[in-house]
From TrEMBL:
InterPro entries: Fe-S_Maturation_MIP18, FSCA_dom_sf, MIP18-like. This is Metal-sulfur cluster assembly factor. It comes from the Bacteria. Pfam families: FeS_assembly_P. Residues 9-82 form the MIP18 family-like domain.
Length: 106
């Protein structure tokens, strides 16, 4: 995510840091699965994200957790998830924290 985030977008990102992948035990932001957050002036939020693999068995669980976190953020009225496969997720997208926690060499 290269763009400057608005206060509402920063609040959504903070909320997403509390969404923990149940299989890996690390939040989605540190895993590098969140590619972008856009919030318009009416509080409509679009979360652009990917998954570690196509056909992820817990995708429905993750979507529900994301929507709950985002809609619990003040000023946010709606949440849509834009699932993308490009660029493809790789362990290089993980933060240093996530790599250390998961024992990934870097």
């Amino acid at each position: 995510m290269d763009k400057q985030l608005s206060a509402n977008e920063q609040a959504v990102m903070t909320a997403l840091k509390k969404v923990i992948d149940p299989e890996l035990g690390i939040d989605l932001v540190n895993l590098g699965l969140i590619y972008g957050v856009d919030v318009d002036d009416d509080g409509n939020c679009i979360v652009t994200m990917t998954l570690t693999t196509m056909g992820c068995p817990i995708s429905d669980v993750l979507y529900a957790m994301i929507k709950k976190a985002v809609l619990g953020t003040p000023q946010i009225e709606t949440c849509k998830i834009n699932l993308v496969w490009e660029p493809a997720w790789t362990p290089d997208k993980m933060s240093r924290f996530a790599r250390i926690a998961l024992g990934v060499r870097f």
